[in-house]
Amino acid sequence: MIPASHYLILAAALFTIGAFGVVVRRNAITMFMCIELMLNAVNLIFLTFARDFAQVDGQVFVFFVMTVAAAEAGVGLAIIVLLSRHTRTVDVDQADRMKW
Amino acid sequence: MLEIFPLILLFPLLGAGLNGVLGRRFPPGWIAAIGCGSVALSFLVAVGALFELVRLPAEGRSVTQSLFVWIQAGDFRADASFLLDPLSAVMILVVTGVGFLIHVYSVEYMRGEGGYYRYFSYLNLFIFMMSVLVLADNYLLMFVGWEGVGLCSYLLIGYYFETKVAGDAAKKAFVVNRIGDFGFLLGMFLLFQLFGTLSFHPLFEAAARQFPHAEVGWGVLTAACLLLFVGATGKSAQIPLYVWLPDAMAGPTPVSALIHAATMVTAGVYMIARSSALYSRAPAAMEIVAVVGVATALLAALIALAQRDIKRVLAYSTISQLGYMFVAVGVGAFSAGIFHLYTHAFFKALLFLGSGSVILALHHEQDMFKMGGLKKYLPFTWATMGIGTLAIAGIPPLAGFFSKDEILWEALVSPHGHPLLWAVGVIVAAMTAFYMARLMFLTFYGSERFKSEPAHQADHDARGHVERAENHSSPRESSWWIRLPLGILALLSIAAGFVGLPAWLGTNRFARFLEPAFSFRISEHVAEDTSGHSLEIGLTMLVVALALGGIWLAYRFYVMDPTRAARLAEAHPTLYRFVWNKFYVDEVYDTLIVRPMEAVSRVLLWQGVDVGLVDGLVNGVAAVFRRASVYVRRLQSGYARAYANWILLGAALVCLYCYFAGSL
Lengths: 100, 664
What we know:
The complex is a heterodimer of chains A (100) and B (664). Chain A has 3 helices and no strands. By secondary structure, chain A is mostly helical. Chain A has one domain (4-87): Helix Hairpins (Orthogonal Bundle). In chain A, helix 1 packs antiparallel against helix 2. Chain A is elongated, with a radius of gyration of 17 Å. In chain A, 13% of the residues are buried. Chain B has 664 residues and is mainly alpha-helical. Chain B is built from 25 helices and 2 strands. In chain B, a hairpin with a 2-residue loop joins strand 1 (63-73) and strand 2 (76-84). At the A-B interface, helix 1 of A face helix 25 of B.
């Protein structure tokens, strides 16, 4: 059986890539995909421990996360579509009007 | 049967509520019927209760009826319970009886005034509150009534609230009364601290246990009594808090008759008589009560000598007569004080209502120097007011003679009495006769100084009074609504005194009836009068002679030679101005108390504490945040990626914390 540490290292790598992408990329869609990547990294951790402890709780959580991620994708994509309609761009640094 | 006496309270409360809530839609007839009817029912219950009470044996004439527990907190307990004993029976009869007559009088007097329903609602509320005051069986409930009548007094003085005078007078009465009420409250606190209860009978029993002998000098009981007396000086208009009563004449005349002559202002006398168990154990406090009483009687009588406004003369006369009552309770003659309270209620209400009749006939003219010669126009008012004047002057055999005579005699022979109290009392009696005769002579005799037909109705309507439809060329007697109460009160002013005959004429039934109510006081051995009453009779003759002399003097001054008074005033301009301006007491209070208070309020409280401290704290906190936010708000840059960075940083910090906290 593949030891848990392998999964965890993979998940950490995925999460770091996602977090890095969110911080450095300016394209809203790319950022969005990075967020999905982070979520799935977390899912992977849940599943690893669910298998290790032989408990179903972690798997149930994963379903929740996937459901919420789907909803989030719907809302987030709608926002991005509207943003592109208004500003003809999906560069998040251009959308900086909501500030002090 | 006797247990239903709290019904006395119910009817006026219902009347006040009905007229107050729905009265705006009622026709005037209904309003008057509800107003008068409720008090009439109360009066009937009170009369019935009195008859039931008299049938009981003398020692058992004390019935307590508890309606519900009002306040219960630890050791402290106050019930909404009511006490009917001879003292409260006399008071409740005066309140509802005179109150009823004045309600009837008001039906005509207030006709056509705006807010007719408001007037009757307040008046009924007053009767209710006054009934609470006199029937209460503990100090706290009494205080509720005490404050309630103060409120009604305020509302009714300010009845013509469109005029500034009435509004100011109402505020003055309220504020001055608050000062007294503060003393009353402190007195109650002290009594509770001392005896652990505020109910009358348990408290008096505790007082009798803890103070078997009268307190020597100044002790804690004296302090409690003096604090209660401060309350009495406010409510009953004694020095130094009497200044509100003359101004209270801005209210409608029936209100002056009911509240500021017959009932409310006597509450202080009642309270002290009710507390006889405490006062008789604090001779120092009694001494002060008597001295303040006699000083007030003298001062008010002096001021009354020079007033021009008919109602103001009566107001100062009321203060002076209240002074007599305080002399009586101050020398330990509690029943004499209540006796004078009871006779005074009749003849002073009569005088006020009579003056109201004159004022109405003259279209709201109150200056006596613009009256004169009214005897032939207002014969009924003249006759009844004449009876009232003779009664207050103490001419036998009218009511005032018996009560005043008893007070003066007690002031001399009581263990707490003093010849000086008696002497000043006698002088005041002569002055009373003089200024009341002056009022009569200026109003009803001499030349007609009034304008027979008001040139401009509007001039006389400063009070917002709606003029009657029928204008008469000469003053005319009012309808029987007004004459009936005058007539009944005149009869009572003649007859009321016979229940309290002096010892040389018979038995004082009134004092004997009241005796059980004062049973907790320290009994004093009064020296038997062995001279066969010759001294008492002689002194009585002297007082009557002086009163007649006062009337004769007023006759010489104001009828035989009307210019004589003016000449005398011109001869002593300073003295006259001094008296006419009421000894400048209002001005002195204004300078010594009101203005410094205003200055302190403005500089220290307003500009210092309010603007400086309170506003400073609030604004200071806001300023700190505003300054800090100049830097902090830079965080909200509008860049989504910056926010993501912050979130990441935060998450990293939390992770680090968890990592290191776990390893600790």
